[in-house]
Structure formats: structure tokens, C-alpha cells
Amino acid sequence: LTRKDIYIYWLILAIFYLYQYILRVSPGVLVDEIRHHFHMNADQFSLIGSLYYCGYALMQVPLGLLIDRIGIRITVLYSLVLCIMGMTMLVIADSPLVAYIGRFIGGVGAAASFLSTLKIASDYLPVSKRAIIIGASLFFGSLGALITGKPMNYLMDQFSTWQMSFIIFICVGGVIFFLVFMLLPKLKREVDIEDSELSNIKNNLLEIITNKNIIRYIIIVIGLFSPLMVMADLWGTAFLISKFNITREVASPILMNIYIGMAVGSIALPYLAQKYNILDKIIVYSVLILLLLFSIVVYGVNLTNGDVIKLLILIGFFCGSVMLCYAGVLRYITAQISGLTIGVINTFNMLSGALLQQAIGFYLDYTWQGQLDAMGLRIYSKEKFIEAFSILVAIIAFSAVVAVFTIIRKNTKN
Predict the structure, then answer these.
(1) Residue 63: closest CA among 78, 47, 83
(2) Residue 287 region, left (φ>0) first, then alpha (ψ -120 to 50), else beta?
(3) Angle between helices 127-159 and 96-124 (to 10 degrees)
(4) pLDDT tens per residue, the chain (414 residues)?
(5) Buried b (16+ CB within 10 A) or exposed e, 150-164
(6) Contact 87, 55 (CB under 8 A)
(7) Closest by Cα among 355, 398, 44 to 230
(8) Can you name the residues that pair with 378 across neighbouring β-strands?
(9) CA distance to 107, 203, 264, 309, 344, per residue, from 258 (Å)
(10) Rounded to whole angstroms, how far apart are CA atoms 259 and 261?
(11) Where are the alpha helices (DSSP H) in 184-321?
């Protein structure tokens, strides 16, 4: 395979990653509509997001093994079928149970998207190019989130039903399936899987989860990505509406600025890390700055809409350094277990996102003060949102401590 071929195949997979991001964040754009349709409180609505993450997370290790064994093409094709099936179930659901099952299936299908782009980078590109291409993958995910908000609101205005908005995106999934089927070849593996370390899964998993360097990066990945998973993907619009007393039409576009920042940061930060060979330093500074910025958004007073937009752009920018953690981990593993290792990291990352989303919803319901809006939905106060989002601040703070006292110490010894 030529370098040009590899970049073309990566682009096709990055489009899949973009698409699954649309599926991931779309319920967060239409919070009120979905809650009203299924008569959900906050804890129940959280399952719409967390079950997607659970399906995504639980399939990371099996898919890591599957991609290493049967290749990317077949895995991605079946994954797209599951994505489309999950979205279809959500659209036709007349009960929360069917919607939950659909979201879980959609998460299972989406699990191969990011994993496949990282597999291409780790197996077919030199170490010097990995950070950039991994960052570019996250850039495509950011685009997926960015193009979700306005189209969803526009389609809602045109059709007056959230189901029709989702049907449009189901059709888009069919187009991507066709692209993968027609353009992505069966990539030849560079290692003989039968004779590789993958023949002993238990030993490989133990090797990964007992590697202190990998564990450190997993903790930092959770801290860097949790604001995206909880705020940007599900609860951010409701938080902005409650804290700053603005409408959804104003809050949703403001929230999307976090993805603009991430789109820039996912390219700029890997570029700087590669050019100046300062990958670990950028990770440490990013998580510390992220802690400060996120704390200002959660606890700050007298913030204007302009202030919030600037803060969210910067939060997204420094969240983009999460891709450097994946590039950092790849330095400690071999090509034979690259898919499995990435799967393990994503499992911890996405499960943490699911748990945090659910924790926010549970706390809001647990502390609910009995207020209802005109549609009969529960209203959660600004103070309770701030208290709930303090969970995220604590998670970021812990990852910052790990970054400072492990990565810096390691580099100092070296």
C-alpha cells in the first residue's frame, strides 16, 4: 500500500467517525422533545446517552481483537448496519425500553469508528505521523458534532417532529455504508495474527492493564474527555439554559463552540507536539488549563454569552490534547496488540463517560425540588446543575494531579 492509499482509507473511516458523532450528540440537541415524547425525567433521559456509551465501551476490547483478526473492512460494514439499526429503533420506539435498546445497539455499532482510524495510524504510519493523523480523526468527530445542532433545529422547524430529523441521518448512514463497501479494500495485515501475541488474549490484557504508563494515560484521557462526553454530548444545553437563563435556540449554538475549539486543538496540539517533541508537556499543561477553564464556566458569575463562548472554545481546544494520550500510549506497545490496547483505553474512557452522564442525571433527580414546566417536565435549578457539574471538576482535578506527579516525574528522571 502506498502512503496515499492509506490516507484515502483513513479518510473514509474518519467520515464514519464523523457520522457516529452525529448519532452520539443528537439527543442532547433535542432534550425537551425526546423527554416529552417518552415522559422522561433527568435520570431516565441520561440512559439515552449513557447506554450509547455503554454499548460503545463494552465492545472496544472485542472489536480490538476482531479488527486485529479479520481486518477493518468487514468490521466497519457490520458496525454501520448496527448504527443504522439502533437509530431506526429510536425513531420507531413507542416506549423508553425500545429507545434504550436502540441506543445501546447504536453504541455497539459506533464502537469501531474511532478504533479503526487508530488502527490504520498505528499499523501503517510511522511514529512521527501518528499524532497528527490521530488528531485529525478527532477533528472529524468535532465536525460531526458541529454539523448536528443547526441541521437538527432546522429540520425540526421544517418537519415539526424529531423523528423525521433522525430519519434523514439514517439515510446518511446508508450512503456511508455504500462508500465503505465500494472504496475500502480488505487491508492486508502486517503481522501473522495466528503466530502473534494475540493468540494469548489473557496475557495480552494483563500486559496492558498492568502497564503503569498506560494506566496513567487512561486516567488523563478520562479527565480530558469527560467535559466533552457529559457537557457537550448530553447535558450542556440544559446546563447553559438553567445557569444563564437563556433559550435553547441560544444555548445550543453557544455549546457548539466547544467543538470548534476541539476541531482546532485536535490538529494544532499534535502538530506542536510533533514539531517540538513536547507531547507529554502539552498533555500536562492542557489538563491544568482545562481544570481552570471548566471551573470558571461552572462556578463563574456575571459571565456574558461572549465570555461563555470564548471559554467553551478554549475548553474544546485543550480537550483536543486527548489525542496525544493515544499517541503516547502507542510508544509502549507493539503492532500485534495495538487494536486491543486502544480498545482497552476506549473501554475505560467511554464507560467513565456513561457513568458520569448517569451520575449527573441521578443527582439532578435526587435533589429535584418539585418544579414542573408547561409540558410537565421536571425543572432543575441553576444551583443543582452547578453542584452536579462539580463531579466533572473533581474528575478533571484528579487527572491533573496524575499528570503532574507521574508524567513530569517520569520525564525528570529521564
Answers:
(1) 78
(2) alpha
(3) 150
(4) 678 888 899 999 999 999 998 888 888 778 888 888 898 888 888 888 889 988 988 898 888 778 877 888 999 999 999 999 999 999 999 899 999 999 999 999 999 998 888 888 877 877 777 778 878 888 898 888 887 767 777 777 777 778 888 898 899 999 999 999 998 887 655 444 454 444 577 788 888 888 888 899 999 999 998 888 888 877 888 899 999 999 877 888 899 899 899 889 988 998 898 888 888 899 999 999 999 999 999 999 999 999 999 999 999 999 989 888 888 887 777 766 776 788 788 889 888 988 898 899 899 988 988 887 777 778 888 999 999 999 999 999 999 999 998 766 666 555
(5) eebbebbeeeeebee
(6) no
(7) 355
(8) 372
(9) 22, 40, 10, 8, 26
(10) 5
(11) 201-209, 212-226, 236-244, 248-255, 257-276, 279-299, 305-319
What single letter denotes the amino acid at residue 347?
A: T
The Cα 117–Cα 115 span in angstroms is: 6
129 is written with which cell numbers? 505521523
Instruction: Report d(CA 398, CA 385) in Å as an integer.
Output: 21
Cell of 111: 464502537
The position carrying cell 457537550 is 232
CB contact at 8 A, 104 and 52: yes
Quickly count: other Cβ atoms within 10 Å of residue 231's Cβ. 27
Cα angle at 208 between 409 and 285, to 5 degrees? 35
Rounded Cα–Cα distance for residues 382 and 151 (Å): 28
Q: Which residues pair with 372 in a beta bridge?
A: 378
Question: By the 8 A CB rule, do 86 and 93 touch?
Answer: no
